[in-house]
Amino acid sequence: MLPDLSNSSFSVDGLVREDRVHRRVYEDPTIFDLEMERIFGRAWVYVGHESQIPKPGDYMTTFIGKSPVIFCRHSDGKAYVLHNRCGHRGALVCNVERGNTGRVFMCPYHGWTFQTNGDLHGVPAPDCYTARYDLNAPEFGLVRVERVGSHKGFTFASLSRHGAAFALPNLMRKSIDTITERAPDGEIEVTGGVHRYAFRGNWKAQLENSLDHYHAPFSHASTRGSDSRQFQRRAGEASGTRLLDEQGGLTNWDKAEAVGYADGSGYVGPMPGANAERNGPLFDLYKAALLKTRSAGDVSRILGDEWYHNAAFYPNMAIQLRALYIRVIRPMAVDHTEVRVYPIRLKGAPDEMFHQQIKFLNLTHAAGSLIQTDDLEMFRRIQVGLRGSGTDWVVFGRGYGMETPKDGGLLAPGTSEVAQRAQYRAWKHYMSLE
Predict the structure, then answer these.
(1) Strand order of the sheet with strand 45-49?
(2) What is the sign, positive or negative, of the torsion defined by CA atoms of 13, 19, 25, 31?
(3) Which residues, in sequence order, are CB contacts of 20 under 8 Å at separation 6+?
(4) Widest CA span of the chain, in angstroms?
(5) CATH fold for domain 170-432
(6) DSSP 244
(7) Backbone angles phi, psi at 178, to 5 degrees
(8) If 0-12 CB within 10 Å is exposed, 13-18 middle and 19+ buried, where does residue 126 land?
(9) Which residues neighbour 304 within 8 Å (Cβ) at sequence distance 6 or greater?
(10) pTM higher than 0.90 for the full model?
(11) Cα separation of 113 and 121, whole Å?
(12) Residue (of 13, 9, 6) closest to 425 by Cα position
């Protein structure tokens, strides 16, 4: 018997099993509202990278679930996450996606102003507020999100005052370290604009897809040449990825690792052929830039170390290490999701290398691209298909029973659905909390 969602203390036991989930998880608006409260209201949700707000007064607006927030840099040099809500009458204070506000934000309704650390700066004609109102109280400012965690500029926040402290699983932390280490200057920048798209489907479909090696040869069959290879994606590559092996199978994909963690995060290992040697004038310039700050041994290891293909940080962010971009997922409704894709620049690398990287990203994730459009069509088809009554269950059984422990997580062959099963164990955990 399925749970009664009119009861706020409902059990999710009937919705999530070890290798499958009920279709209501994707299509029930009540479940979506509870996800916003119990998952996005409690988990460590990715907000942005500090390089996106480099100077005092710089800000970007975003959402944690349904809650609008401002990610901004204060005059003390620190980055703050603030609730984007006036402490007076509750109006959205900042309605611009990003910019520099100078010293203060101003609410357009009654002119209250706020410092970039959230403190109330000024109230027009304050004399009418009697002594019972302490305008210095935090409630009258842009209230700070209290719990914020960061690793090498990647910033996460939790709306809950309680819960586990911020801590990335070891190999998830290493995925960020691996990107940073590839930058000759030892830092990255999230710059170069953004691709933004929306699809008529559930947000979890995009998160699942981020760690799905099984779909690539089929969903993206139109990108395969006669040799089963895709197009070139990075500077220095002689050819693209082989989507099917010489026998037309998935053996190479299964040589890659797939790992899922209890917190819902996970990663999948490099695509087949990712360790192929790269060369060419531009790649040689990049290698020379690395050698200025690294030993020859370290450079050889960095250029040959392809630990990951995708790393997904539950519930709303994924990093693609091969193409160097961040994908941020924003749930809008049970069947409406917005996604933003930000390129990552390796500081100190040749400018032309970043220009080529953006060109490749345009091929894969622009509105008329060759990759992302395939996935969006699948997400739409999932949402439409689940309205039917043929079966009530969505199955994540590939590789079930083949898992082995891996550095605090569970490891299985590359095309397994071990990472998706981990996502739903985390989903069940959060949704079971009252």
Answers:
(1) 45-49, 154-158, 147-151
(2) positive
(3) 393, 394, 395, 396, 397
(4) 81
(5) Naphthalene 1,2-dioxygenase Alpha Subunit; Chain A, domain 1 (3.90.380)
(6) S
(7) -60, -40
(8) exposed
(9) 275
(10) yes
(11) 5
(12) 13
Q: What is the mean pLDDT of each run of 10 residues along the chain (434 residues)?
A: 52 89 96 97 98 98 98 98 97 97 96 97 90 90 96 98 94 93 96 95 97 83 61 56 63 85 93 71 95 95 76 97 93 98 97 93 85 92 92 95 95 95 97 88
Q: Which tokens sit at 199?
A: 């699809």
Topology of the domain covering 45-158? Rieske Iron-sulfur Protein (2.102.10)
Closest CA to 160 of 24, 41, 25: 41
83-to-69, 94, 116, 230, 280 alpha-carbon distances in Å: 4, 10, 11, 44, 48
Q: Which two tokens stand for residue 147?
A: 């719990």
Nearest to 143 by CA among 157, 153, 154, 125: 157
What single-letter DSSP state applies at residue 298? H
Bridge partners (DSSP) listed for residue 257: 413
Beta-ladder partners of 149: 156
Asked if 126 and 89 count as a contact pair (C-beta separation under 8 A), the reply is no
**Contact present, 67 and 142 (Cβ < 8 Å):** no
**Element (DSSP H or E) covering residue 428:** helix 418-432
Residue whose tokens read 């607006």: 61
Give, as one character, the DSSP assignment of residue 249. S
DSSP 338-385: EEEEEEEEETTS-HHHHHHHHHHHHHHHSTT-SSHHHHHHHHHHHHHH
The Cα–Cα gap between 223 and 206 comes to 20
Cis peptide before 315 (omega within 30 of 0): yes
What are the residue ranges spanned by the domains of the chain? Answer: 45-158, 170-432
> Dihedrals φ, ψ of 87, to 5°?
-70, -5
Helix (H, G, I), strand (E, B) or coil at 64: strand
